[in-house]
Amino acid sequence: MQYVPKYENKIKYIVELIKNIKNISILELGVREGISTKKFLDVCNKNKGNLTSIDIEDCSKVSNDKNWKFIHSSDDNFEKIDDIIPKALDFLFIDSLHEAKHVEKVFYHYYNFLKKEGICIIDDISWLPYSKNQYRDNEFAEHINRATFNKILEIYDQNKSNFNLEFFLQESGYAIITKNNENFLNKSIKIHSREYGLKNLLRKLYRRKPKH
Question: What is the model's pTM?
Fold first, then answer.
């Protein structure tokens, strides 16, 4: 029987990362069933923090916790949202529309609200569970997650001094970004791979030649 990880177990990784931040201020993009929302509120209640969550669906009934504010909106409606959310965030969780261009758009915007040494986690960056014959075999999700992963690498490639980047690859994975300074981020640039370059293709062809 193939092992299938649970989303709740994945969230535990984040809780361990942020559980000791006093007066923590969290912005969550994407609520769904509220699994992550409730875990983040546990942290807020222990550390006198606050959580603001945004979702295009009405998720206002997920909790009535006094430390929670829900914004019913698309998370790229910046004109509406910027006046509502805290101006200094300890933690940003991006788990809304899993499409590379949207992830890039909201990351660049809300990154400016992160404090120095603040943490941003981007969900669903691993395509491995969605690959052929894997436990979540899904061609569309495989392509979307790979595109997001590559986009994060492109952003990092232009901002190596501005933030640290790590990957957590259990289940559908996380990108963990830690802000190093107050600099504005440089725009991402496509990384040109030499995987399909002539030299590499010739090298592969040479390796396949039978030995006499």
Answer: 0.90
